[in-house]
Amino acid sequence: MPGDKYLYNNAGTVTEKFSVQASAGAADAGKIPALDATGRFDPTMMPTGIGADTKSISASEALAAGDFVNIWNSSGAKVRKADASVAGKEAHGFVLAAAASGAAATVYFEGANTQVSGQTPGPVFLSATTPGAATSAAPGGSGNAVQRVGFAVGATEINCQIQTPIILA
């Protein structure tokens, strides 16, 4: 679906034009872009190096959309569910799409995790009871990792700002 139209001066004639839907690169310099259905810029509209900070990494277990994940070495980089009950499984990022074990998962290192549910606005921490999940209560058990992963801005969105974990004595 085309975006909104705007008027521009075409050699003295007022002309209606659609906003740019997909960038052709330098040829579209200075043009007005349209937002996608979520109200954000389509990633193809952004120049290289600008956009979501992501990495495609092979999953070593099944991941659900919204899971917070840990990157670890198993004959190369792999990604698994982060778990605050296990030292060394702190969160490094999150996934917005499910991935089967052995499949490539797109890991996001910052930004909005919009694939969560049941959140209460406020600080959120990596869960010590449900691997991959976030909770509003910091873990309190011996050996647990207290790691703030962001701030819930609504029931279905966490603004992720993953911090260094503290392992409880």
Which strand-content bin applies to the residues? 35-45%
Strand order, sheet with most strands: 3-5-4-6-7
Chain-averaged pLDDT: 90
The major pleated sheet works out as: 5 strands, mixed, barrel
Helix and strand composition category = mainly beta
What share of residues is helical?
A: under 10%
Radius of gyration, in angstroms, nearest whole number: 20 Å
Distance between the termini: 56 Å
Helix and strand sequence? EEEEEEEEEEEEEE
Say how many strands there are. 14
Q: Which descriptor suits the 3D outline? A: elongated
Number of H- or I-type helical stretches: 0
Counting structural domains, the number is 2
Low-confidence stretches: none
Task: Walk me through what this model shows.
- The chain has strands at residues 5-10, 13-18, 54-59, 68-73, 77-81, 93-95, 104-108, 111-113, 122-126, 134-135, 145-146, 148-154, 157-160, 166-167.
- The protein has 169 residues and is mainly beta.
- It folds into two domains: 5-45, no CATH class; 54-167.
- The strands form four sheets. It has a five-stranded mixed beta barrel with strand order 3-5-4-6-7. A five-stranded antiparallel β-sheet has the order 8-13-12-9-10, with no helix packed on it.
- The model has no long low-confidence stretch (mean pLDDT 90).
